[in-house]
Amino acid sequence: MREIDVRGLSCPEPVLIVMDELDEFPGETLSVLCDMAHTRDNLMKVAEEYRRDFKVNIKGRDFEIVISGKS
Predict the structure, then answer these.
(1) Is-contact 42 14, C-beta < 8 A?
(2) Could you tell me which residues come within 8 angstroms of residue 27 by beta carbon, excluding any fewer than 6 positions away?
(3) Domain, as residue range, for 45
(4) Which of 16, 24, 54, 68 is most open to solvent, judged by the fewest CB atoms within 10 Å of its CB?
(5) Per residue in 5-61, pLDDT tens?
(6) Are 62 and 34 in contact (CB under 8 A)?
């Protein structure tokens, strides 16, 4: 599982980073840490656009979005 930390970054940067990772490593599951609700929402939309399953977890004050790899 690839771990990506986009905490403290403003959109669209987290979205672009995750899109690059999804394109470069399509078979990998991504664990993305973010700290803002709108970033979480945007990353969920990206996962849907890429037709990937995802799960959102709350870790303290942060969000973890786990995006499944493409099979």
Answers:
(1) yes
(2) 69, 70, 71
(3) 2-67
(4) 24
(5) 999 999 899 999 999 999 999 999 999 999 999 999 999 999 999 999 999 999 999
(6) yes
Number of domains in the chain: 1
24, with CB counted inside 10 A (0-12, 13-18, 19+), is exposed
Determine how β-strand 54-59 pairs with β-strand 30-34.
unpaired
Residue 70 — very low, low, confident or very high, per pLDDT cuts 50/70/90? Answer: confident
d(CA 70, CA 57): 20
Tokens of 16: 């672009």
Indicate which CATH number applies to the domain containing 16: 3.30.110.40
CA angle 20, 21, 27 (to 5 degrees): 130
Contact (Cβ atoms closer than 8 angstroms) between residue 33 and residue 4:
yes
